[in-house]
Amino acid sequence: MASTTLVCDTEPWKDLKGHVKEIEKTHLRDLMNDVERCKSMMVEFDGILLDYSRQRVRQDTVEKLFKLAEAAHLKQKIDRMYSGERINSTENRSVLHIALRAPRDKVICSDGKNVVPDVWTVLDKIKDFSERVRSGSWVGATGKVLKDVVAIGIGGSFLGPLFVHTALQTDPEAAESAKGRQLRFLANVDPIDVARNITGLNPETTLVVVVSKTFTTAETMLNARTLKEWIQAALGPQAVAKHMVAVSTNIPLVKEFGIDPANAFAFWDWVGGRYSVCSAVGVLPLSLQYGFPIVQKFLNGASSIDNHFHSTSFEKNIPVLLGLLSVWNVSFLGYPARAILPYSQALEKFAPHIQQVSMESNGKGVSIDGIPLPFEAGEIDFGEPGTNGQHSFYQLIHQGRVIPCDFIGIVKSQQPIYLKGEAVSNHDELMSNFFAQPDALAYGKTREQLLGEKIPNHLIPHKTFSGNRPSLSLLLPSLSAYNIGQLLAIYEHRIAVEGFIWGINSFDQWGVELGKSLATQVRKQLNLSRTKGEPVAGFNFSTSTLLTRYLEGDSGVQSNSTMLPKM
Ligand code: F6P
C-alpha cells in the first residue's frame, strides 16, 4: 500500500529541525575537546576505522538521527531489500546486488527463488573463460593469445569496473597477475575515445567485451559496431566469434548483434546498472586482467560489509552512520555537496564512480509514492585524490563554501617508497596531509592566533579560517582487492540509507530518459539533412540555428563509405 507520509512530517524530523539551532551554537573546536564524545564517534569493523567526531553533531544529535531512522522504517527497508522484495517499485524490481558477492551456500531469494546458484553459475563460467584466455587456450582468429581487452560500456557498465581496475593496478599481487596484459575502457560515443582506445592495439591480440545491461544503449552499441568493424576489417567476419564477447541481461539482443550467446555472460534485472560492478559487468573484464582469484577477494570484501550492514546495530553500523550523517548535513545543516577525498592515487576513479551511484540514485524530486518533496534530496558529489585536490579546490573548502568532506586514508601503501635521509617515507608525507586537513577544517585559525603571529592587520581577514567545517575520516589497513570491495559496499549501502530516510526510490533513474529521447529526434534530423539535404525543421530557434551552423561546416566525413580512426 502506498503511504502518503513524508519523512519531513514525522516528529523526529521536526525535532532535528529544531535541534539545528542548538548545533549552530557549537564550534567543532570545542566539540573536539570532549574526549568522551570523540570516543563514542569511533567505529571499527573488519580492519576499517570510521572517525566521525569532526561532524557537527553531539551525541544527542546522533540519538535523534536514530529516532529519524526508526520513523523512516530504516531497519524494515534494509530487511526488505535483503529479502528480495521489489523495492524498486517504479520498475517493479528487487534490488539484490548483495547476492552478487554472496558465498555459494547463502540463500537470497527473488520471487521465492534462490538467486545465489545462478550468480555462481555465471561466476564459474567467468572463471573458466578468463583462465582459458589468460592461459592461451582460447586464442584469436589467427591463433594468437588475446592479451589485450577493450571493455565497451557506459555509466554503471563502465565507472565501477574502471574504479576497481584503477585501484588494483598498483596492488603488488594484482599487478603481478596482470603482467603482459592490458585492460582499456571505451565509454564515450565520441570517436576520439575509439581512436584513443584502439591506438597501439592489434585486433589479432584483442578481445572486445561489450558490456550493456539493456544492450540498447546508443553510445555502447555504436562503439560495439565500430569495434566489430575494426575486427572484421582486419581479420574477416568469422573473427567476431573469437574476438567479441558480451555481458548483458538481454541475451536475445546479444545474439542479434552477432555474438554467440555461448560467449555471453548474464546478469539479472535485480541488479541496477550502477550497482553492477560485482556482476559479470565488472567481474569479467577484471578477471581477464587480474585472474579470478583476485576478483574473488574483491567480492569477499564487499560481502563482509553486506553482512555488517544487515546485522550490526545502528550505533556501530558504518554505512548506516554515514548515511544518517549525510542526511543531517544535506537536509538539516543545508550543505548540498560532499567531497570525496581519498589519500591514495589508486582511488582516483572512486569519486567519479560514487558520483553516479549517489547522484543517479538519490537525485530525485518526488517520494517513492510520487509525492513532490518539500525538501531537497541527494547531494552533489565530487572529489579528487589528496594531495592533488589540496592544490586545486581546497581553497574553497577552507575559506569559501562549507562542503562536508570524506577523508579516506590507507595505513600501508600499495607501493611504499622511502629515501634514506628523508624525514619520512613518501606515504607518510602523503598521510601527514590526511591527518592535518580535517583539523584545519574543524579548528580553523582565529584572529587572535594571527595577531599572536604578528600578522599585519590588513592581512588578518584574508588569513582567518572560520573552521567548524565538518569532515569524517575512514582509515583502511591497506588497499588490497578485499579492501576495495569493502569500500565499494560501504558507499553503496550508505547511499541506500540516505534514500531510505528521504523516502525516495534510489534504484530507478527516469531522469536520464528525456535527454535520450530528444537526441533521437536530432539524430533523425542529422541523417535527413546529410543524406537527403533536408533543411532543419521542428526545433526551436536556438537549436535550429546551432544545428544549421553545424551542418554547414566541414564534418570531415563522407557518408558513403566506412571510415575508422587513422591514428
Ligand atoms: O545513464 C543511464 C543508464 O541507464 C545507467 O543507469 C546505466 O548504468 C547506463 O545507462 C548504461 O546502461 P546499459 O548497461 O544498459 O548500457
TrEMBL record:
GO (cellular component) term, any one: cytosol
A GO molecular-function descriptor: monosaccharide binding
CDD domains in UniProt: SIS_PGI_1, SIS_PGI_2
EC number per UniProt: 5.3.1.9
InterPro entries named in the record: G6P_Isomerase (IPR001672), G6P_Isomerase_C (IPR023096), Phosphoglucose_isomerase_CS (IPR018189), SIS_dom_sf (IPR046348), SIS_PGI_1 (IPR035476), SIS_PGI_2 (IPR035482)
Pfam families (alphabetical): PGI
Localization per Swiss-Prot or TrEMBL: Cytoplasm
Xref: PROSITE patterns: P_GLUCOSE_ISOMERASE_1, P_GLUCOSE_ISOMERASE_2, P_GLUCOSE_ISOMERASE_3
Recorded superkingdom: Eukaryota
Keywords: Cytoplasm, Gluconeogenesis, Glycolysis, Isomerase
HAMAP family named in the record: G6P_isomerase (MF_00473)
Alphabetized NCBIfam families for the sequence: PRK00179.1
Protein name, entry field: Glucose-6-phosphate isomerase
Lineage: Eukaryota, Viridiplantae, Streptophyta, Embryophyta, Tracheophyta
Gene transcribed to yield this protein: LOC105060694
